[in-house]
């Protein structure tokens, strides 16, 4: 009936929310129908999940209702899981059996855990990837303390293994180390019995990050009781723990895999060409040859001027969201799209309470200053998506 | 060397603490050496455990350091687990290999869970009997919600079975029902999927209690969503749940057994004659034929004037503690002991927030009044053992 173009956004993560909000702002009345589809009725802050996962912050500080972020008079929200994208028919099928047609599609569904084929990893390890998985990890950790007090021979219940010393791994292990004294006190457990291992296959923690800051981070964490096993691949995860390096078994009832992310399978299943699940999009964030499909966030693959792929971060997803929305509006108005140019605002990794490391431009930060910087970044994000009210509501943890 | 008599108290529950405190008060300087032995360095309020078990109150409100309850200049405290009582040698062996000699022994170690030989009950059910077991139950419950969100086909994770509708069972099931809406909200679970069963083999809930009040209690709990299966024995506990009545399987990942208590095995292993683990003590609380050994609390068996055994309660244990201490002092001073006479102060069962039932003398209470009465009883106990400071510190939950 109507000739109004239909825009469907799949996923309300960093990229999807920014796209929706920018479209909401830019589009005129009746210029397009926008539908946002998301598995949950909330948006969550992936970069904050390491805190509730370890139990150092409340879960509710890591999510916000989507209805608080978008104007439902302007954008339709559908709570559903996408089962299939049919590019030929310009349709998205949902798990509940319904289907959405689109003229423009934004794929911002987020990535999946990549276990690199390590045997047992999918079965026996948990990963930090959603509110549901994070609630599980948090409960699992506390459950180990409660269980240990029922059978004090089970020291594996007090041993925690984090696979991967990238950003997620380091940030999680930091919170875990901060949480342990509290749990020991609560459960009457001798803190000297608790072991935290951070295992990384690469020859350094935080690969690609400034060496001086990496050393600083490792010192901070070692002082908090973390044992690093760097240059040590996990060979296998088993019901007893993990086998690392040359066959050493670390007995542990809690293995958290924080080492890899790949593109979502839904993208390759749509017949779109991918590299390890990610789409090598054009400069305008579009699937090559399919100008009406945009891919942003974890499923997109872009290269920096030196020819190296940008790592999937919240920062790049947010910037892509804004450009994506602008380019869709331009397309509707028969205007020229703009090329996406990543503007690096800097990178900060939290090391737990009062400690962090960061780089902004060429300037290095560490300790308290870096921790303050991290808080500012988090506050800035809350402000961008929800204004002052959201800062006041969710910013308490900062 | 010294001729000062040695008094050893085993267990710092209601009976043991009251004995220790009364001895501390009555004994003159150097009149006796008193040693209190307890597995933990804290005393806990067994009658309050149903709240932290369900998660409706903090664990710390259910316990207090023993050092806050006794004067360690007057009484020695030994944190140890008793492994054996050798009545011939007047010695108590501890698990750490040490031994304590006594002239007077008070056995106030508390009871053990009685599962009446129901297959699988020991292996697959939890029971409310200590701070450690209660922390486990609490974590287990929350773990089920977190796990359910990982696999929503597992409805057994949202089904909770409480075995026994006696005092502990009813009080726990009440708190559990109060806790569920909160957990559902926290984990985004549809409350209509949660099931709570209270299964009781006897033909009524709260056997022996006033029928009108029992009916009131059942109505209150049914309105909170509890399903009763009364006159229905649990035939077996399995990894899947429980088999009840004529073979019906209730699938449940959480079975809490709150139906039975028996005497501690350490007593019968000491060669003391017992009936279902309990010692039929004389009127002075002593083991027949062994005037220097007193048994109080869950391990003691006494009969009311109608010839029925008193149920093991905190109330009777406390009163026994006082009489026990008085009689030991009398024995040391070559005075006459006094007979123990139980003075029934009434009985109140909590039904969760703002609800309870109770009988004091011949007067029945229910609803808000009964709930206030329950609080008064709890406050009175805190006052007896720790004075105003303990009331202020732990009475917050009241």
TrEMBL record, chains A, B:
Membrane-spanning residues: none
GO biological process: aerobic electron transport chain
Span of domain FAD/NAD(P)-binding: 6-321
Pfam family, one: Pyr_redox_2
Alphabetical UniProt keywords: FAD, Flavoprotein, Oxidoreductase
Molecular function GO terms recorded: NAD(P)H dehydrogenase (quinone) activity
InterPro entries xrefs: FAD/NAD-bd_sf (IPR036188), FAD/NAD-binding_dom (IPR023753), NADH-Q_oxidoreductase (IPR051169)
Cofactor(s) for this UniProt protein: FAD
Matches recorded under PANTHER family: 64 KDA MITOCHONDRIAL NADH DEHYDROGENASE (EUROFUNG) (PTHR42913:SF3), APOPTOSIS-INDUCING FACTOR 1 (PTHR42913)
Family designation: Belongs to the NADH dehydrogenase family.
Protein name (database record): FAD-dependent oxidoreductase
Organism: Paenibacillus selenitireducens
